[in-house]
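Form 7-S
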Amino acid sequence: MRDQALFDKIDLHLIRVLHTVLTERSVSRAAIRLGMHQPAVSAALKRLRDLADDPLLVRSGSGMTPTDAGLRMVEPAASILRAAEVLFTDVRGFDPRTARNTFRVAASDYLDPLFLPQLVAQIKTLAPFCQIEIHALSADTHYHAHLSQGQVDVVIGNWPKPPDDLHMGRLFGDEVVCLVSQDHPAVRRGWDQAAWLASEHIAPTPTHPGARGVIDDHLDALGLQRNITARCSHFSLIPSMVATSLLVLSTGRQFCERFVDRYPLRILPCPVDFPRLMYYQLWHERSHTSAAGAWLRERVKSVASSLRKE
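Output:
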């Protein structure tokens, strides 16, 4: 009887608070994500602590960290929330005109700068009552775990070899070119492989220690090394840096073309042959058969296709 009495005190909202507080590791951040007032989240956390007979989240330095019991509850809580979403969404069918889902997309900012704005616009037009969250792919992003735990539904990015333990949909391929200031000497004189390698290059900050991007991975395979003198973790800011310097950015043509009318920039061919950059969307088995998940992936594919046709 004790277990039944305990079960009767648990509702889906409480599970959602539990999962959000444990993954955000912050009551204030959890409140923002849940759209609740912080005292209400604190009250729910107190109920959860009483039910679990464990503090679940404790102070650790300037932040908070889950207890061992709290960590063990993250994946079961995520499973319950996933099951509830599938239970009601797929039984009723997904109708974007009336649905109230929350879609979570993780993407890097080296995508075409029009991609995410157009994706958000399309979702809000076709599914006006749905919410959408855009998450950055940063140095501390563990997108495998985030996909499996339901923290994100789709990850969009560029991988030389996408992970084979996730579902994958190809979006588009792009040519590697170089973006330089219109005053760069190569605009007038051109360049060969040696001159390009010796130029001052700017590259994104590695996502984790020792990480190499697709450009440097390919150069390494050829036994070549470029002269990287600047790095920036905000890819969308790099074109403005290139416009006021002699730095060289090597990336996809589609990204570069969005900036040549905005800044004094030129696009030059790269004197090293690179394979095309391939962009994909990745998703987990948990959402593979979800009607809402399939609808979201179709929107991603639609935006990628429309941008390539421009």
